[in-house]
Design goal:
Blueprint: E1 7-10, E2 14-26, E3 29-38, E4 44-48, E5 58-59, H1 63-74, H2 87-98, H3 103-119, H4 124-145, H5 149-159, H6 161-175
Antiparallel strand pairs: 1-2, 1-5, 2-3, 3-4
Amino acid sequence: MFSVDELVVYPAQGVGKVERIETQEIGGVATELIIVRILSNNVTLMVPVRNAKNVGLRGVYSSAQAEEIRAYLQDRSDFTGYSGQNWNRRYREYSEKLKSSDLKDVAYVLKELILIGKDKELSFGERRLLEQAMGLISLELSFALKQDQAEVKKSIEALFADILQAKAEEDEAEGD
């Protein structure tokens, strides 16, 4: 069970803070709700206590788990690339992974899109998914590691510096 002021993660929304736990009557039934305010966009969610685990509500990762995510991002051995898959199928697959309560699934999306972007231009939708994945990961890791989100984002980008630098140089050369 979560407590008031505890930081939690709601899949696809990110880190939030438990504002209160209250009972409301819904459809004639008293229902205990966890009221969570998502920090990145101030959206308030009402999650039934009995459904909290089913929807993937969980605590923020520990610093050790955060370091495991960083190591996972750095490991490129599981990169499958776009191996003939069209962007629409990848988009659906990645959208589903972003809804996962497992941050490793979100990290997978981030890593795949950065690595795919090395070889081809990402679609608008893929770029949005990349931004969403980066936001979800960098915000949670910033709380887990007690660092500023911008610092965490820079450290993640540093893991892919070789790819991002090569892509920037390639884009610059095309612009000349």
